[in-house]
Amino acid sequence: MRATQNIYLWLVVVLVLIGLQSASAQITIPISEEQVLYEMIGEFNNSGLSSQQFGYFADITGLGNVLSSTSTKNETTALFTFVTNATTFQVVNNGPFRIVDRTGTTTIYLNNGPSDFSNPATFSQGTPIQVSSYRQQVILNTLTNTFVTVHTNTITDVETFTLNGFAYRLGQLGKSFRTNLSGQANTPGAVPSGWFAGTSTGSKN
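Above: the chain's sequence. Below: its structure in token form.
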């Protein structure tokens, strides 16, 4: 009987140690100042003052391969997607340039895809793993319909996720990152409203 109790206690200790080891093995993908963090590709739809921007990550520093295929590299194989919902609060025209300012919220998802640009809802079908506040400035060249943007995100929520047997957290609460995008606007009224791609880097809080 005593031997059985000893074995039981030993198993409990082992399970506790395994649990502590798993908790300590959680990996935080840090946001460091001026470090390149993300490479993103996406589309957007504008309607009045509202803008929805959605897409996927082609690279996340610290995570290795973020696509489920080495041959097909697009939204259908993306393991991480994002959706930004923003509202325009100011528009200024200067010669051929239109400067648009927006604020909103960005959510990054661990995707359970595949995603499809013809169905924007598929980019938010996964598990939210990071939420951030968002401020954007767009500079549109009205002669060519090309644009560049700069926006800043400050993280307001981070959730643990599992990938390839490891537990991760994407960034840290309160940290910020800056994103520079280049894009092409579509014909007014067409869907999508446009396309973009760019990178994010850590910024000083």
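Residues 9-24 have pLDDT under 50 and may be disordered.
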